[in-house]
Amino acid sequence: MERPLLAMLATTSCLAAQDMAWDALLRQRIRDEQDLIELRYRRDEHGLLEVASCEFGAIPFQPLFPGAYPMRSVTGSLLTGTQILFGHGSSGILGCTDSERHLRRAGIEPSAVALRQFLVAPWPADAVRARVELLDRMVAIEWLQRGGHQGAVAELMALTTRADTPPPLAARAALALEAFGKRSASATRRRLDAETLPLPTVADAYLVVDHGKLPDLHELHLLARRLAVDASYRVVETLAAPTPDDLYFGQWGADLLGEVPFEIARRYGNMRFDHTVVALLATVPQAKAQRVPFGWNLQAVGEFEHAPLEAALREAAAAAPKELQCEPRDGAIHVKASFCEAVFGPTSIGTHSKGMGGRARPELARELLAEGPAVRVVIPSASKLWPALTFLALPPAERLEVTASFGEELRVCLTLTARDEDAADAWAERGKQLVVAKPDEIRAAFEGVLAALDRSVSFVSFRAVIEMRPGRPLAALQPLVDAIAATKITTDGAKVEAVLTSRTMGWPLLWALRAFGRAAAK
To answer: 404: Cβ–Cβ under 8 A, 6 or more apart, which residues?
Structure first.
């Protein structure tokens, strides 16, 4: 009886020691700000990525994107979505892919020499695999360009001159050559036409984005992935002895953020937005069938890989003919669903919800599309957003415009049109009262907002990622506090203008806000 008992005790002691070592390893990885586990990746016969748990996990290989639509497989990320839709740069949405990690997951060595050889390698016979490898090569060019590997110029030149190079790859190689200064710019960004732009009769807000004037938003992806990894640390804090499979989904979500752009490009074609206008109208849902609580009208121009997009839309329509109808017409594909309509062409996209189709309104369009800022937001006088400002106890206003420009400095300009000069003076005075608040009061207000977000947003731990040490102001907010305090407010008749400028606010501020995940309120 003694020997079995001793053996059981010895086994139990070994397992306990292993658990203690595993737990210590996880906590050390948290301190070092590393991923908790490294998932295993491979490609199926068609080149599509499959993922499994880490080396000691039990979750087998399965498709990285198990659903019909890639975004359904991902926990929502505002930062990643913003980068994909608005800050993808001249190379399109595909350029938002996490290049180095994607290449490694695909079994492609991301060294400069290996990638140069890969760019001019023979094409696979399988059509699906060839499509995947086309995008892989475009991602490889992105990685070489970001790394400044000008030694790849010869291969890039070859891609632009060879007759068998697919047009998307040749175009991407040309862009890289332009970035390396080996070729002059081939084309300018497209712009919407104010004379023909269809706008709805009524809208609560308009958003205009001139994508070519936005800064490089690649940092948003890095920050989004960092936040996702930070959120995965909660498993270690919550479970007494988490297994590798307990950590799988947190790591899967973080990895997925960098693969979503590639999957979108694979399924629907690469897309580059140049100029976009969105009109939004707040609505009250009338029935469960109403998909979203607002109406919209989106019009955009750019470069859209039309063939994959058309094939995907036709496939979706064939799978659900009662819900979706597709009709090719005039070089575009017209889509109609119960709650919206859309027109997708090679250089333009237009979509609107029911009743928001609108018509050409040149005067309003010229106002919205006026040259200057990268971002413009306009709230008209009839907007339902104005009641949200009633707490200020100020006279009603006719119009509010907010613009943001980027360059050597950030410039945010708020222009409000009041009903008369007295109302403008009242708005200006209230604005000055808000601006001259003491820095400590401004910091305290921001810390209160962050604390409220931590309580209300479940998928991101703001407490874990924002530096909020007891008794210490949030130092990372100092550039923002200084910019607010230096805001200039002026009046001209019925107009009030507030201008905020800063040369120190930017990515360092965002990363400082996160404080590298090390400081939390305890």
So the answer is: 373, 374, 375, 410, 411, 412
